[in-house]
Amino acid sequence: MTLYSIVIPVYKSTKSLETIASQVNDLQKEKGYNFEIIFVNDSPFFLDTETTLSNLVVRYENVQAFSLKKNQGQQFAVLCGLKKAKGDFILTMDDDLQHPVKEIPKLIKAFHADPQVEAIFAVPNFKKRKHDAWRNFGSYLLNKMDVIFLKKPEGLYKSSFRIMSVELCNTIVNNYNAMPAVSSLIINSTNNIKNIEIEHN
Fold first, then answer.
1. CA distances from residue 94 to 11, 13, 71, 150, 188 in whole angstroms, order as listed
2. Beta strands in the chain (DSSP E)
């Protein structure tokens, strides 16, 4: 059966991790998917997070948890999870529930519907986006910089809610520098990327 790895960087989260693990396992039962959930703890000295992750590993067979030795940032946490992933396809999402678990099937279906695609970034409808105006403006400026410096296709938007092939995942984890950004590594590695719209909390 096809295995989907879900990599989630964690920073001082507790209840949201329980919600994600529960919802992913409910989705697995409902839709017949096969998921592994990989939490990577970037707050190793925050006891509540460590305790929550330990409990989840005991409660769910498909949950793994890894802790970085010190806080190294979201991007390194994601890369650690990508290295640990055993799935045929790899998804990443945030730990704060802004990426709804119920939207995961939309990503999977869109990926398999296009045999050329190697990665999909899931983005909100920007007219309904749940971010403050200042954050949306910052995203707009960063997007323009990406077009100039990364040669990112105009109209393609990056997101930490994404799916990629295992081949692309392997390329990324074997080719990054001292200050990696996973979305930028994807854009530098392939042109076969697209966006889909999802709900955004």
1. 10, 11, 16, 23, 22
2. 4-10, 35-41, 63-67, 89-92, 119-124, 162-165, 193-198
pTM exceeds cut of 0.85: yes
List pLDDT tens digits, range 15-56. Answer: 999 999 999 999 999 999 999 999 999 999 999 999 999 999
CB 2 within 8 A of CB 86: no
Give the residue carrying structure tokens 């998921």: 35
Q: Tokens 């707009």, residue?
A: 140
> Residue 152 gets which letter from DSSP?
P
Candidates 66, 56, 61; CA nearest to 34 is 61
- Run of H or E residues at 121: strand 119-124
- 43's tokens: 């707050």
Q: Which two tokens stand for residue 90?
A: 């790899």
Containing H/E element for 89? Answer: strand 89-92
Question: Residue 10 in contact with residue 17, Cβ under 8 Å?
Answer: yes
As a whole number of angstroms, the distance between CA 143 and CA 79 comes to 22
**d(C-alpha 182, C-alpha 87), whole Å:** 18
* Nearest partner of 80 among 152, 155, 169, 3, judged by Cα: 169
pLDDT at 153: 72
Q: Is the pLDDT of residue 72 over 60?
A: yes
